Amino acid sequence: MSVVEPEVDDEEVSSNDLVDATATEVLRAGVRASPELRKGFVVSVTFAMVVAAGRLVVPVSIQQILDRGFTSDGPDWGFIVGACIAAYVAIMVLAVLDRVTLLRLLTTAENVLYGLRTRAFAHVHDLSLAHHSETKRGVLVARVTSDIEVLAQFASWGAISWVVNLTLIVVAIAALAVYQWQLALIVVVVLLPIVPAMRIVQKRQLRAYDNHRSRVADTLSAISETIGGVRVLRSYGAVRRARRELHESIEKQYRTQLVARFYFAIMFPLSDLFSGLALAAVVGVGVWWGPGWGMAAGTLVAAVFITNLIVQPVAEIGEVLDQTQTALAGWRKVLDLLEEPVEVAEPEHSATLAPGALRVDVEGVRFEYEPGRPVLHDIDLHIPAGANVAVVGETGSGKSTLAKLLCRLADPSAGRVCVGGVDLRDLGRTERAAAVRLVPQDGFLFDATLVDNVRYGRPDATDDEVMEAFRSLGLAEWVESLPEGVNTPAGERGDALSVGERQLVALARAELADPGLLILDEATSSVDPETERRLSHALATLAEGRTTISIAHRLSTAEAADRVVVFDAGRIVQDGTHEQLVAEGGVYGGLHRSWIGNTRT
Amino acid sequence: MSAPTHAQSDELVPEDETPGSPDPLEAVNPPLESADESALSISLGAKLIVRFVRMHPGPFVLSIIGGVGWAAMIVAASIVLGRVTDEVIEPAFSTGIDGGTVWWAVGALVAVGALRGLAVVVRRWFGSVTEARMQRSLRSAVADRLLSMPMGSYRNRPTGQLLATSDVDVTTATQMLMPLPFSLGVIALVVFSLASLWSADPWFALVAVLLFPTLAWLSRYYTTKVHEPAARVQQKLGRVSAIAHESFDGAMVVKTLAREEAESDRFDAASWDLAQERIGLARMTSIFEPLIIMLPNLGMVTLLLVGAARIESGGTTIGDLVQAVALFGWLAFPMRIVGFLFQSMPRAVVSIARVDDLLAEPEDPAYATTPDPAATPGTDHSDTPGTVTTPLPEGPLSLELDDVRFGFGGTEVLRGVSFAARPGEVLALVGSTGSGKSTLVNLLAHLDRPTSGTIRLGGVDTDELDPDELRSAISVAFQESYLFARSIADNIALGRRVSEEETERALKRSLAKGFVEELPDGSGTVVGERGVTLSGGQRQRVALARALAGSPRVVIADDATSAVDPVVESQILETLRDGDTTMLVVAHRLSTITLADRIVHMRDGRVRAVGTHRELLDDPDYVALVTAYERDEVLASAGEDGSP
Fold first, then answer.
1. Minimal Cα–Cα distance from B416 to chain A, Å?
2. Cα distance between residue B572 and residue B583, in whole Å
3. Which residue ranges in chain B fall short of pLDDT 70?
4. Which among A153, A447, A527 has CB closest to B20?
5. Where are the alpha helices (DSSP H) in B149-178?
6. How many CA atoms lie within 13 A of A361 on its CB side?
7. Contact A87/B20, CB-based, under 8 Å?
8. Per the structure, how many domains does chain A have?
9. Does residue A468 sit in the same domain as residue A590?
């Protein structure tokens, strides 16, 4: 059940500690990868500092009014009103500047994220497909969605919080130092432990949440297994056991949730405690030694208010530290993805191919997914133009890998694959797609109408041409039987159609592109009778005048081919016509015997 | 300037509930966006709160005490600060003070800080306990219902929806339990503050009365205003991730069609949309945030002006002024998030409605929640209390269906099905999609009960059999071959007493022994997301081994080998046919069909014909059905007439 897979990499937890050391590296690499980040950043930070200074308007006004407004002869109204008007104006002007700054910072963040996201996406499609397993795909999707989303969350809060709070702390401490440097020193000394104290709680909280999250995932998988496996559970009498396990799992989730919430409960109030301590220290020291230092009462009151201003930002920075780490880890993952080398590089100038059927030459090809473990050994295969070849063999014999190499989803580790006399590596993307067409087993369709899905085979085709493609394959009647004809939506991944019908669309797509080499990956699963008849007819029509290589699972396909190539353990073990191979025996003989034995009674 | 956009979510929604990434479940059950302000949802929300409080009153009351205590401590802190100003700071710079007074000031400031922190701890902790207990209660109720509701209820509810209800909806429904004590605390804070300001100087209270409603209104206005754009951002984010999913899933097609650039364009456009939408949101945020900081600051300067006049007239002291200014500073933050409760309420109401809807499903008496005596493990028997039962005869069993009918959703799927399998016979069940084969399998597995008609096993009506005996006599291998994320051996035993030898034998019979032995831990290997992933055919063979493990006397295979190579499939079926086991095989492939002794041909919920393959070949409808997949073969078979 993919729903419950939390797409968590195991590296994530352990990498947290690593990130501390490499935070600057990630930052540097991140800035390099995102030129958008540098644009106007210095100006934004300068603005932020001015705005932060604006937060001092109220404490300074208090100090001024208390110390200078109230003279021994009573209040100096000229000064008080003047000071207040100045304060009003300053507060409003700075609010406008605040808006400008905030918008600048947030816009920069969005531009950076947009750039990162789109570059990562494009890069994924440039990577070789050889290693794309289902899990790997999930990870890649996570890179351009949730990992970048973590960054986005960080950008809209954590990153801004760093800029804003750090400048606020610096400015406030500077102001305090101007009033009385000893007080600034005391505040720094008292508040400094907040950060490590919060770090300690936070680390435990993080661990507790990790723990909780895996329990949540456990419960969710238990529930999804209950739903998905309900028939099995009931017919095998395992309901009571399932119930017990489900309740255990819910109970565990509850307990881990409470542990995590405990840290949550004590985390933030730490700042209340420290704020009390800092105020007490400032007041205590101020009243005891202040008069001796020549301070005025108003100055001390201002110092109290400034201290109040500092506590909150320090606590907030303590809080975003963790988010910062997660964001840096996510950022690094995205950057790593961008740095993954493109193995299947496109040539600068594409060779061209003559139209019509293409010959295929596979010369000394070896292929390994993992170094040292080849799945294809020294394959030599020459197929004349226009031939119809069936490739057979057991699962894992290497026949599907050959199909991948023929349409250059990966490059061979050694040797070369030539189509129409040209090395596939010398053919550009578009030329290759036009000349070589793979019709995959599952017939993946995009969530668009049939006509658009077919047009993906040749983007400039008109609706009429698409319809013509269906018609020439004898599929016009089928298309018309669909609820909205060619405009029927295919649904997510083509779910609105059956497997067989999806293949029909894939065939029409291939017909439209008019390739010289057709590679068919035959479906193994059963297809309903009507569709099956349409498929075989369409296939026969499509194959005319082209070189066709079928990864065959059926006897009929092998029998109908001009030539059968038998794969076993990554090598070609037999090659000839069906009749020859049957006579020869060997691997094919075995396959054929069981085919025949089981189908002809 | 400040960046407290998230202070909202941070103060009220603990990390485990903050949506970090687009949630696939959220997409299935999207929260109702429009119901936001309706008075209806608020009254429903109030009802929901009462219901929750009734379920777990203790911790809830404590959390409210924490919330109110916190409010009291904030006001207390401002009072302390005011007193300290008048009685410690002022004298210190004029007349001088003694050490004891200083210590009094220091102690009081530390104490109010610490108590305020403590109140927050109490509020958060007991709020969390309330929420967690609520979630546990709801989750358990949902889980029980999933286990006990009849199969018919499953047919009406998509899996994704069920999952979402048991996870996201339960969480969302209870999510207002955290903001609730906080919001009550804020209300207390307003009351306490006004009282303390009034007693300090009524003019201060007047400034507050002008300022704070403005703040609350502004914050409410902003929350309402960003609601839609925020929902649009979520939507666009969903679109971005849908494109990524689709595009990467179809990476092979994208590559073979050279559509990389077109895909990138598509993704760029969606990402650009998302970025623009977010910048639009930032535009609102960047007006709101500075305003919300500016207003209290303006208020504080006004206080200074008013205060100066009042001090001159002797109506108030500098300490009172300091107290008021400090309180203004502390009030600003809570005022802006008090609306959070109202924001989470409509979602909670919608979610609880979905949970309740699921809980309203009936229970199938056979699986109803009974007090669990299973503290003793391994006694996983008799899901139904035993009534009078008839034992099964010895030896191979016959299987007879007599005018069996079944329907759901108003349509009759089985319209009187009758046929019989002789003891030890292998029957193939064929028919086009929708002919009722899988429904029939559900009835045979006793998952559904026929509307009328009887199913007899060894001559005994299955309704009169002990459910345990029935289960051990009939084993079903289902089409979808569901494997649980545990070891292969566990998957085969499923809590039954199955010895290691039996497991081995079952694996051997389903031709799964070979590949299972090659797995890292053999039959101890865990299958599933994190473990080894098996191919479709391998999964089916393990599921088949499960069906064979209890030494059943009747095996029903519902297209259970469709993903297995035809050659292997035939070998498996050949080994299963031992003369003692009666078998009913739902089949599509000709190679499978021809292995059966006789074939039951179903059409439109009825049996069209029963006979050997050869006999049925006279029926063109049958021929069309079974020849579709491998036409060549059947033609050859008819022509060559048995010669190899």
1. 23
2. 13
3. 1-41, 336-343, 369-388, 528-533, 566, 628-644
4. A153
5. 151-156, 159-164, 170-174
6. 8
7. no
8. 2
9. yes
Round to whole Å and give the CA distance between B32 and B348.
10
For A316-355, write each residue's pLDDT tens digit.
787 777 778 778 888 888 888 888 888 778 888 888 888 8
Report chain B residues whose CB lies below 8 A from the CB of A447. 242, 246
Cβ within 8 Å, pair A164-B2: yes
Residue B258 and residue A99: Cβ atoms within 8 Å?
no
Residues A497 and A378 in one domain: yes
Given this model, what pLDDT does residue B631 score? Answer: 47
Q: What is the CATH number of the domain that holds A141?
A: 1.20.1560.10
Q: Are residues A265 and A381 in the same domain?
A: no
**Containing domain of residue A575, as a range?**
360-599
What is the rounded CA–CA span in Å between residue B165 and residue B167? 5
Task: List, as ranges, residues 326-365 from A with C-beta within 8 Å of B.
Answer: none
- Better-predicted residue by pLDDT, A526 or A72: A72
What CATH number is given to the structural domain containing A396? 3.40.50.300
pLDDT at A246: 92
Q: Is the ipTM of this complex over 0.85?
A: no
Contact A581, A589 (CB under 8 A): yes
Shortest CA distance from A256: residue in chain B: B132
Q: Mean pLDDT, chain B, as a whole number? A: 81
**What residues of chain A, 523 to 552, have a C-beta less than 8 Å from chain B?**
524-530, 532-533, 536
Q: Do B1 and A98 touch (CB under 8 A)?
A: yes
Domains (range + CATH), chain B: 42-137+157-359 (1.20.1560.10), 399-640 (3.40.50.300)
pLDDT in tens, B13-35: 454 443 333 333 333 333 444 44
A225 touches chain B (CB under 8 A): yes
Name the closest residue on chain B to residue A57, using Cα atoms: B297
- Give the integer Cα–Cα distance in Å for A224 and A3: 9
Q: Can you give the pLDDT at residue A75?
A: 79
Distances (CA, A) of B288 to A98, A367, A590, B8, B231: 10, 60, 77, 14, 18
